[in-house]
Specification:
The chain has helices at residues 37-55, 140-143, 146-159, 174-185, 198-206, 233-248, 256-264, 283-290, 311-317, 329-340, 359-365; strands at 2-7, 10-15, 25-34, 73-81, 94-97, 100-103, 106-109, 123-127, 131-133, 166-170, 190-194, 211-213, 273-276, 296-299, 320-323, 350-354, 374-377. The protein is α/β, with parallel strands linked by helices and 386 residues long. Pfam families: ADH_N (PF08240), ADH_zinc_N (PF00107).
Length: 386
Amino acid sequence: MRAVLCSNGRLDVADIPTPRPGPGQLLLTVSRCGICGSDLHARTHCDDLADLAAAVGYPQFMRSDQQIVLGHEFSGEIAEYGPGTRRRWKAGTPVVALPIRREGRTPQLTGLAEPAPGGYAEQVVVQESMTFPIPNGLSAEHAALTEPMAVAWHAVRRSRIGKRETAFVIGCGPIGLAVISMLKAAGVRTVVASDLSPRRRELAARCGADVVVDPRDTDPFGAAARPPRITGVTDVLNLGFDTMDRLRAVPQLPWWYLFRGLHALNAAPSGPVVFECVGVPGMIDGILTAAPPLSRVVVVGVCMQADTFHPAMAINKEIDVRFVLGYDPGEFRDTLHMLADGRVDPAPLITGTVGLDGVAAAFTALGNPERHAKILIDPSSAVTDV
């Protein structure tokens, strides 16, 4: 089959042996595959990523001297079953699958490990238990975005944001746009998006952001229709005084039960929820400095370099910082159905499609935020330029 091989930073189209599905696996004919920001990083920084992966217990991550078929955001059709499968669906059934498979007891990250070639190819092997049929006639293009949208859905769920809380999305690249879409699907009433790029701000508005700002001109945290009630530590302290004045005005009131109840119900005063979707050094520290006290910061952007921040700033503001990665199978399935049911429209993210021969050009084009957000690969297409 034809595939795009990544080795030593180069992307070359080559004919390679068609992969064979092993026990519990099936072979898909790839319909569409998205180019992910992590693919762009892995092309040039995979050795650093491999060292990090090895440190957390996954030593099979791709290395620069290997020949890797990238691609973990894909949709396809069932072509062949391996041994030991339940053969749940007919050949030709449109499906998506989590980009992870298992050889014996060894998990492999599809498209990010040499033993598990990814979707920059005509066919790809997936695990049957991690495969889901595409419902409601959802297009192959939109179904291929199940994976990145599931990353965003996981981030939104992990944030524990309420519908009446304000969300601030810092960075409107593909993952930031996906987070905005999922926040609105979750019913969050106010989403403020911030990005330096005019094109990305335009896409953020199309994804449902209620307020979109250029951080060079406008402080995102002051841009909401209802600015945060707590903007500084003085506000937190005065809230304590005002509350105690009112409670102590009631004779014999066991006021401490109110505080216990607020904590038990997680209903104590809080700041907004901030999603860091940039992933460059300095962003976390900048958000900790600018965000109101009692904020929850969800780090979704993947920073590939070492970074620093001031813990005392987060301590004095009592800010929660939460890091997120990936999704679980339930979130992946639910995301697919949210797309198929029309609750989420991924169309604004898709800004181009190329064939296998156009992947190298697509990587270059994605370096310009004014041109593209998400480029898809159609292995059957002859398009080479975007």
